[in-house]
Amino acid sequence: MLHPDRLFPADPATRDMARALYATVKDLPIISPHGHTDPRWYAENALFPDPARLFVVPDHYIYRMLYSQGVRLEDLGIPRLDGTAVEQDPRKIWRLFAKHYFLFRGTPTRIWIDHAFETLFGLTERLSPANADHHYDVIEAALHSEAFRPRALFDRMGIEVISTTDGALDDLGWHRMIRESGWKGRVVPAYRPDAVVDPEFRGFRENVERLGALTGEQTGSWEGYLRAHQARRAYFKEFGATSSDHGHASAATANLDPGEASALFQRVLKPGVSAADAELFRAQMLTEMARMSLEDGLVLQIHPGSFRNHNALLFERFGRDTGADIPQRTDYVRALKPLLDAHGNDSRLSVILFTLDETSYARELAPLAGHYPCLKLGPAWWFFDAPDGMRRFRDLTTETAGFYNTVGFNDDTRAFPSIPARHDVARRVDCAFLAERVVTHRVDEDEAFALAHDLAYRLAKEAYRL
Q: Which residues on neighbouring strands pair with residue 188, listed in sequence order?
């Protein structure tokens, strides 16, 4: 299934250059600084239960596509909030997946899954209804072996460090278990405070109270609330955290004086908060998080622009993160100005910007990152974490921001087997891009080889302070 020249240029001379560059980076260790794998996997090191729960159930890239073609999430084993029975037979789930595998033609999901099938399980025939049971049996047999426990796969995949994404209220018990186990694999948390900084997050007021209980701070006051965040960030750093992570609907920031901020905080703690106050509070909190980053050194990741949980029916039945998040237009120039006026010229601060609005690459993001010392651009992300999306990112940002105001690649995945595949795609696309620069005499060969290494490994490691 996997052609050795996949994603390389068709022109022979450019392809040869891409091959040479790729050969030097294909086996580099994986730095995975932003993702959503479950720390419990590494803590317990238990066998993965079955192929369906390894590939299908945790991966919204898969089940959103099937849902779009009329497949019920219940039939894919996705648990419902109300406890209504869903399909529990993993072989039935797998057969349903195989029946619809043709839907992924031309998508990055297809590339990732084929890569995992072949490199991890030796399966070289495309999945179909005819071979579904064979694929299932081969994968299931492998999953019962010691070589396919999470820690063994972590090592086999060449992962040097991986960051999970953990809520501000998480006790980090799984991270504690990892640390106390003596295992040498490096798994670190990232501080994700959305549940306690977004007044429109379900249970926000109760979450703020829990934040106070966890930290011993009076989170009914603005000052106590901020101290509670500082305490939780320090707690996360004890377990190796190097970043915070913020998934707001917009990139809005604000820089209110303390009295205004305190009054706003009291308003958002009350029921019936207005949309305007909720947006202003989220905006203020990004600037507050930047201030805290100057004190504790955590890298500030901002990835706005998703209309989250757009499908109200699925949100009520299945909860958050069920593949119904939709990109929307995002303004960065005006939205980020309050934060940048306050801290944008301080090189001690590191802010990594992501986008789901590709129209902003050349017009807004590259010029911003190409000027402000604190800003860097995260890679093509989410819907654009794909060969053509990665190429567009390089085409539209390099002329203004260069390579060194970007942060390499991160895989942003919930699906453990896809991690090597995603990094392989990024390395191939970047090597193809660099090869074209060499043959058109815009980059010298020695520079291209240095850049290939930087984009595959060094930039992510340094940008995330790992």
A: 163
Q: What is the pLDDT of residues 89-114, one digit of tens each?
A: 999 999 999 999 999 999 999 999 99
Handedness of CA 207, 209, 210, 214 (dihedral sign): positive
Mean pLDDT of 149-167: 96
- Measured between alpha carbons, how far is 113 from 229 in angstroms, rounded to an integer? 39
Tally Cβ neighbours within 10 Å of residue 112: 28
What is residue 47's predicted lDDT score, i.e. its pLDDT? 96
**Residue entry with tokens 């900084």:** 197
- For 304-347, the pLDDT digits (tens) are 999 989 999 999 999 988 889 999 999 999 999 999 999 999 99
Q: Cα(82)–Cα(86) distance, rounded to whole angstroms?
A: 11
Q: Which two tokens stand for residue 198?
A: 């977004």
Residue closest to 340 by CA, chosen among 359, 360, 358, 367: 367
Q: What is the pLDDT of residue 155?
A: 97
Closest to 352 (Cα-Cα) out of 280, 302, 422: 302
Domains of the chain plus CATH, in order, are 12-41+158-463 (3.20.20.140), 47-148 (1.10.2020.10)
What are phi and psi for residue 406, nearest 5 degrees?
-115, 170
Nearest to 143 by CA among 59, 41, 66, 64: 41
Tokens read off for 62: 């898969």
Q: Over the Cα atoms of the chain, what is R_g?
A: 22
What integer best gives the mean pLDDT of the chain?
96
> Angle of helix 204-215 relative to helix 222-238, nearest 10 degrees?
70
Which residues make Cβ contacts (< 8 Å) with residue 128, sequence separation at least 6?
Answer: 98, 101
pTM of the model: 0.95
Q: How many CB atoms lie within 10 A of CB 206?
A: 11
Looking at residue 75, its amino acid is D
- Residue pair 190/244 in contact by the 8 Å Cβ criterion: yes
Show Cβ contacts of residue 293 under 8 Å, excluding neighbours closer than 6 positions.
244, 299, 300, 349, 350, 351
